[in-house]
Amino acid sequence: MDILQSFLLGLLQGLTEFLPISSSGHLALGKYFLGGEEEAGLTFEIVVHFGTLCSILIYYRSILADLIKSGLQFATSPKEKAHDPQVKLIGFILVSMIPALIVGFTLKDRVEEIFASPFLVSIMLLVTGLILFLTKFAKEREGKVTLGSSILIGVSQAFAMIPGISRSGSTISAALYLGIKREDAANFSFLMVIPVIAGAMLLQILDLIEMGVDGAQITNLLVGFFTAFISGYYALKYLIVILKKKGFHYFAFYCWVIGGFGLIYFWN
User: Fold this and answer.
1) Is the pTM for the entire model greater than 0.85?
2) Domain segments of the chain: what residues?
3) pLDDT at 116 over 80
4) What tens digit of pLDDT does each residue of 77-100 get?
5) Which of 152, 132, 116 lies closest to 21 in space, CA to CA?
6) Which of 47, 90, 166, 223 has the most Cβ atoms closer than 10 angstroms to its Cβ?
7) With contact defined as beta carbons under 8 Å apart, do 166 and 160 qualify?
């Protein structure tokens, strides 16, 4: 993997992790066209995921600081903080993780097998497009995240473990279908992914320890990290703007174009 490949794959990860067009799907197709050895690919995947994790931590630093503060206060005075909205949000985030944890620990091998099929990834991109387009018909409401909705959004996040299904696309769409306010839908979608990304990175790091790291790839890894970090931050920032302007469903057309191209290209 050279510097140009690192830049392009880092850019893909940064933009597609938050834009509703499937980061896993784009990385699968990107690796197919750009190549790269398996060991370097695993190391690189960890690094670029860390880049997008840093971008979301920076973007939501104020909210995260409040959540940590409320969580610590709840730990010392549970009765007084039991009805704190921030404490409830922490609970909703934890509940939303359950479906992804179940699927991750029981179907991990199967998901990796699907990841290796660019043809199936292309089909799933078409499905993502349909999910996004249907948000155009979701009724505009000002609902809040609840225990029930957090579980359903968590199920949509678990479904998005299939490469080609956008995590942010499916979770935000699910929230919109449930009548949750647009900005709250986006914020909850991105806050709930923090522990998921961190957990997935931990599992990958354990695999990486067994294989070791090629020191010659340090420059490429740094390029991938900073590209994913910077592009991820601005993708997250402008997606929320687009969502507020009710342009979320327009990403469907992009997914259909890429998915359609993939179907034709990988038909045989």
Assistant:
1) yes
2) 3-265
3) no
4) 888 887 889 999 999 999 999 998
5) 132
6) 166
7) yes
